[in-house]
Structures are given as C-alpha cells and as structure tokens.
Amino acid sequence: SPAQTRSVEKSGCFSRGGLAKITRSSRAGLLFSVSRIDRLLRKGQFADRVGAGAPVYMAAVLQYLTHEIVDIAGEVAARSKKRRISPRHLQLAIHSDSELKKLLGGVTISQGGVLPLNQPVVLPSKKRNGRRAIKRRIVPAPVPVK
C-alpha cells in the first residue's frame, strides 16, 4: 500500500519494484527500535498476545525517559566541567530529579558512587538580610565630659 512504502530506487536481484519498506520507528517518529521491542515483548512471554500499538508506546516511553536522564546528566557533567557523561553523572542526575528519584531510587548504578549527604549542622547558618535583622535601638546622645 502507498502509506507503508516509499518510492526509492533499489538495485539487485531482490528488488521489489522500486519500493522500500519504512520502519515502524520512522513511521512513529522514534529513534528507539519498535521492532526490537516488539520482538522482546513476544519472546519474553509477558502475555499471550501483544497489540500493535504496545511496542510503539513502550518505545516512546523508553526514548522519553532516556532523553530526560541523559539531558540532566549532561547538565551535571557540564557543571563539573566535563564533556563526557560518566555513571556518576547519571547517578547524580537521577537523584536530583524528584520524579526520576521516585522511579529509579532503588536502582544501583555501577561506578555511580555515593550520594552527597550534607548534615544541617555542618552547613553555614542562614543570616537574615541587612536592616530586617538589625533591630534599631534608641541610643542616648553622648554626654560631653568636662
């Protein structure tokens, strides 16, 4: 059908009349492989049947989560003046975002290191701003000494 194929010049003995297949990933506008996720869902024996939209939806969710984690980890790496994302940056990225922490808080990342724990006692005390902190006292005028 015209919706599933694109006109591309192909050569060789297995040519199909100049029509090439379009992947399900490109149809859905995804980078993650829909066919691979479909195969893994069927092979995994999670259910007797797998709907046509399930692997597309799952690929979209996985792509979104991966994008979020890598985006935050890139910011963490840039803050530490690094150009390469390390497992430590992934660990800090996951634990800096409340929703990702809720989802992946119990996951152990190899070479991720420990999370920094700042005790409130060690942190410097918060000082109030200028005039509000200083209470104005009425000071009597100095008496000249003779």
UniProtKB/TrEMBL annotation:
GO CC terms: nucleosome; nucleus
Keyword Hydrolase: no
Phosphoprotein keyword on record: yes
Main location: nucleus
Location of the Histone H2A C-terminal domain: 99-129
InterPro entries: H2A/H2B/H3 (IPR007125), Histone-fold (IPR009072), Histone_H2A (IPR002119), Histone_H2A_C (IPR032454)
Stored Pfam families: Histone (PF00125), Histone_H2A_C (PF16211)
Gene Ontology molecular function terms on file: DNA binding; protein heterodimerization activity; structural constituent of chromatin
All copies of domain Core Histone H2A/H2B/H3, residue ranges: 23-95
Compartmental location: Chromosome; Nucleus
SUPFAM superfamilies per UniProt: Histone-fold (SSF47113)
Keyword tags: Acetylation, Chromosome, DNA-binding, Isopeptide bond, Nucleosome core, Nucleus, Phosphoprotein, Ubl conjugation
Family the entry assigns: Belongs to the histone H2A family.
Subunit organization: The nucleosome is a histone octamer containing two molecules each of H2A, H2B, H3 and H4 assembled in one H3-H4 heterotetramer and two H2A-H2B heterodimers. The octamer wraps approximately 147 bp of DNA.
Purpose: Core component of nucleosome. Nucleosomes wrap and compact DNA into chromatin, limiting DNA accessibility to the cellular machineries which require DNA as a template. Histones thereby play a central role in transcription regulation, DNA repair, DNA replication and chromosomal stability. DNA accessibility is regulated via a complex set of post-translational modifications of histones, also called histone code, and nucleosome remodeling.
Protein name listed in UniProt: Histone H2A
